[in-house]
Amino acid sequence: MSSSTSLSSSIEEASNQTLIPGLPDDLSVLILAFIPYSHHPRLKSTCKSWHFFLSSKTLISLRLLHLPPSAFSHLLCIFAQDPSVSSPFLFDPKNLAWCPLPRMPCDPHTYGLCNFTSISIKSHLYVIGGSLFDTRSYPLDRPSPSSSTFRFDFSSSSWSRLSRMISPRGSFACAVSPSSDQILIAGGGSRHTLFGAAGSRMSSVERYDIERDEWVSLNGLPRFRAGCAGFMLDNGHEREFWVMGGYGQSRTVSGVFPVDEYYRNAAVMELKNGGRWREIGDMWEEGERRRLGKIAVLEGDGYKGRPTVFMLDENDIYRYNMSSNRWLKETSVPRKSRDDSSFGFIVLDGELHVMAYLNGVDCAEIRSPRLQFKRAATLFIQIYNPRKKTWRSLCTKPPFHKIDFKNAVMCSVRL
Question: How many CA atoms lie within 13 A of 102 on its CB side?
Answer without folding.
Answer: 15
